[in-house]
Design goal:
single chain, 2 domains, 5-stranded mixed β-sheet, alpha/beta, 179 residues, Rossmann fold, 3 helices
Length: 179
């Protein structure tokens, strides 16, 4: 992983990466349209990363307006091999206090968005039982330890369509799922 390009998609509140300087910016058009913003090539020491603010540079895109396929395809077009998504979220677990980083290992997608890069004659079936890379999660958890950050390795992330949060009944359901 050390010699492969890393991409970071920042969620609400993460519009830049402290400690990194911008060395370039690329405006990319993909087969799926425009990503949320131009991609920034950032550098810290010898390490280069590609950064994209998920909601746009001035947080002008609602969750339902995000073009996830264009965002991911733009990262791929930039040579990204390891993609890290950062989100500001809540938790249904009292054992996870605010500001705890969770390196999830499972997802529940409640967005009803198009979830494939295939179609229009291109047929494929993709296994998704294990949607994250355990090796990358362990590296990130080790970084959290070194930085003294509260974290948990493993957890289930429920993604809702937004911008509305879940109803009380939905929250109870997700909590019963141990999400």
């Amino acid at each position: 992983m050390h010699d492969q390009r890393i991409g970071i998609i920042g969620g609400t509140g993460l519009y830049e990466l402290p400690g990194f300087e911008k060395v370039d910016e690329k405006t990319i058009t993909t087969a799926f349209g425009e990503p949320s913003a131009p991609l920034k090539i950032l550098k810290s020491g010898e390490k280069e990363v590609v950064f994209l603010p998920r909601h746009g540079e001035n947080h002008h895109l609602l969750p339902t307006e995000l073009n996830h396929r264009a965002n991911i395809m733009a990262m791929k077009m930039m040579g990204v091999k390891w993609l890290i998504g950062v989100s500001a979220v809540g938790s249904f677990k009292e054992a996870l206090p605010p500001q705890t980083m969770v390196f999830v290992d499972q997802f529940i997608d409640r967005t009803r968005l198009v979830q494939t890069f295939f179609g229009n004659g291109l047929v494929a079936h993709v296994g998704f039982a294990y949607p994250t890379e355990p090796g990358l999660s362990k590296i990130l958890a080790q970084c959290a330890i070194e930085l003294g950050l509260k974290h948990q390795l493993g957890g289930t992330y429920v993604n809702m369509a937004g911008p509305a949060f879940s109803t009380l009944a939905e929250s109870r359901l997700y909590k019963s799922w141990d999400a």
